[in-house]
Here is the input.
Amino acid sequence: MKVVEQIKKPIYDEMELFEEKFSQSMSSKVALLNRITHFIVNRKGKQMRPMFVFLVAKMLGKGKINERTYRGASIIELIHTATLVHDDVVDDSNKRRGFFSINALWKNKIAVLVGDYLLSKGLLLSIEHEDFDLLKIISVAVKEMSQGELLQIEKARALDITEEVYYEIIRQKTAILLASCCAIGAQAVNSRAEEVKKMHQFGELLGMAFQIKDDLFDYGDYKIGKPLGIDIKEKKLTLPLIYTLNTATPSEKRQILNTVKNHNKNKTKVKELIQLVKEKGGLDFAKVKMEFYRKQALELLMEFPKNKYRDALELMVNYVIERKI
Here is the structure.
């Protein structure tokens, strides 16, 4: 059995019903919009975020969940999908999970409007049912994600990113959304404030590890959604490169910055830079940090009573770190 299927097993029925509810939550009277949202639903990924919502809710709700849990998962997925659609416009990306992106098929103008529509549907879904506690969690996440993206753009221009700034960027850009999934899962079944806070922290730690893993893919051999060296091409200074810059000689540092700034589209130069990062121990350093976040996330998770939902969450933590795609 594939790991993802194993993780999904305790919440299989809930995920099936969620897909129906999520599809309904996007419906509109505009035929073009329905065509695009249908395209989105049919090209869904692993749906890790809703899985976190259901696993946390069932772990803390003694195996029972409610309509709020389904709404929480739909709100998360609507907002997440909106940010992906907007990201593809910002990054001028033509592909998403191996398929053409919305902006590639329907152009930027429509993609931005679709992203806005999904965002508003997510907000309305929580307002209509007075789930203001869930709305607060997700609104904070959207604000942080925007700030993280802008901070990364600002630092890419100046190329002066430190290790501390990198952690802040990935906390805001990636970790906050996973933190929100776990917090919403806990909040939806009316868990104690302390449990909601712990689950938020758990999601954040896992999100940090998840993003470092993603950054390592840029230097690895696995065939994934993005080509090798894409972060360098986009002038993104990720952890392996930051470590290399911090340990490089002055001449190596000049060479690295010159490649990132002026030769980031030159395949040979990018390959040489990737090799230098490997030789200087940049990948090993990033792996150690990733393991540090995994360990902290698992320690937090073990504070909760053992059941099949906690086991599935533990499996999810390890899958995030060990995945090949």
